[in-house]
Amino acid sequence: MRTRIPSLVVSRLLIAVVTLVIVSFAVFFATALLPGDTATILLGQSATPEAVAGLRNAMHLNDPAYVRFLRWIAGLMQGDFGTSYANNKPVASLIGGRFVNTMKLAGLTAAVSVPFALSLGITAAIWRGTLYDRIVTVATIGIISVPEFMIATLAVLLFAVYLKWLPALSFTSEIRSFHDALRAYAMPVVTLTFVVTAQMIRMSRAAVVETLNTPYLEMALLKGASRPRLVLRHALPNALGPIANAVALSLSYLLGGVIIVETIFNYPGIAKLMVDAVSTRDLPLIQTCAMIFCLGYLLLTTMADIVAILSNPRL
Question: In 3D, which of 313, 188, 309, 159 has the Cα closest to residue 258?
Answer without folding.
Answer: 188
